[in-house]
Write a structure and sequence with these properties.
Number of helices: 7
CATH topology of the largest domain: Pseudouridine synthase
Order of helices and strands: EEHHEEEEEEHEHEEEEEEHHEEH
CATH superfamily of the largest domain: Pseudouridine synthase
CATH class of the largest domain: Alpha Beta
Number of strands: 17
Strand content: 25-35%
CATH architecture of the largest domain: 2-Layer Sandwich
Distance between the termini: 51 Å
Shape: elongated
Length: 348
């Protein structure tokens, strides 16, 4: 992945729904007829024909702007592009013995329960101690920043540093490319739990609003009503428990843009509790009395991050083709926050 200087690693696009060019070839004028899988194998260093064929099968090898099959015969002056739903990295992967909460593992995939506070991918200011560093150690992988086939693209999606919960990890070429396709096609099941400010009027609803980078603050995203700007993002929400001043909701992602849930909920007047980037650390509901303000301050100390947890993850296994679904219970800090609010409601 290419790392832009001075950009918060939290803003690395977590679940891309566009294709990024990793390799580009222009076929020589004198090229003899040759299958495209053989052509790419010969022209890409440290990349096996098997990996090339997997990428072709999942639709990630294009001639011009269209995907092709493995038996496509390259022609002189063809423009061949190897594209993936994530940017190429540009940092060295240093293996580090960091404990991992492994929910599931087989020969093809890993499902990790990421704690809040852990950066997923190395970036500016966070070149060590990330989830990818831990995975490199667990999988026995070490790579420089210019590795030709980008095999540490095992993470096919990401969640924010201060969001906890489930992540899928690919352990081989087939799994990486197959899971990347499932995310690209929006067929992955992803449900989050969030504690938000305010009492939502309805029991459920949908936010369908394009997201773009905030022109006044590069570290933020915002909704835009201009259909020509931003990227379409859809979040379905449902109330699970009401506390008057805050609400526990479930959010189901239809798309997976950076900060999507955080921005969407803030845009409808219900920012996530404790989210300092989108208004969640302001007292948005309740009284002006000092006792209530102290209670809110204690709540922020109990859960000192945005109260957002990736609870459910479901996908089709790349090898067995069976649908797998995993659940991660609400972590201790969010559970303690909920108990505080339950106690406060009883006293009221």
């Amino acid at each position: 992945m290419e790392i832009l200087p001075q950009i918060d690693p939290e803003l690395q696009d977590d679940e891309q729904e566009e294709l990024f060019e990793h390799f580009r070839f222009e076929v020589d004028p004198g090229q003899d007829p040759l299958r495209i899988d053989k052509y790419l194998t010969a022209h890409m260093e440290r990349t096996s024909r098997h990996r090339v064929q997997c990428a072709i099968k999942e639709g990630f090898v294009h001639v011009g702007d269209k995907p092709v099959k493995a038996n496509y015969i390259v022609r002189p002056r063809d423009i061949i592009r190897f594209v993936m739903p994530y940017r190429r990295r540009g940092v060295e992967i240093i293996p580090q013995d960091i404990p991992l909460d492994i929910v599931y593992e087989d020969d093809d995939v890993l499902v990790i329960n990421k704690p809040a506070g852990m950066v997923v991918h190395p970036g500016h200011g966070h070149y060590e101690g990330t989830l990818v560093n831990a995975l490199a150690f667990h999988l026995g992988i070490s790579q420089g920043p210019d590795e030709g086939d980008d095999r540490m693209g095992v993470l096919v999606h990401r969640i924010d540093k201060d969001t906890s919960g489930l992540l899928a990890v690919a352990k081989n070429d087939e799994s990486q490319l197959n899971l990347a396709r499932q995310f690209f096609d929006h067929s992955i099941e992803r449900r989050y739990n969030a504690i938000v400010w305010g009492d939502l009027k309805e029991d459920e609803g949908t936010v369908d609003a394009n997201l773009m980078r905030d022109p006044s603050d590069r570290l933020r995203f915002c909704v835009t009503s201009d259909p020509e700007k931003g990227k379409r993002a859809v979040t379905h929400w449902k109330v699970l428990e009401r506390f008057g001043f805050v609400t526990l909701v479930e959010c189901k992602l239809e798309t997976g843009r950076t900060h999507q849930i955080r921005v969407h909920l803030s845009s409808i007047g219900h920012p996530i509790f404790g989210d300092d980037r989108y208004g969640g650390t302001e007292i948005r509901q309740g009284t002006i009395y000092a006792k209530y303000k102290q209670f809110i301050h204690n709540c922020f100390e109990t859960c000192p991050r945005q109260a957002l947890h990736a609870r459910t993850l479901g996908f089709v296994h790349p090898r067995t083709r069976k649908f797998l679904q995993f659940e991660s219970p609400i972590p201790g800090d969010m559970a303690a926050l909920l108990e505080k609010w339950r106690g406060y409601c009883v006293k009221r």
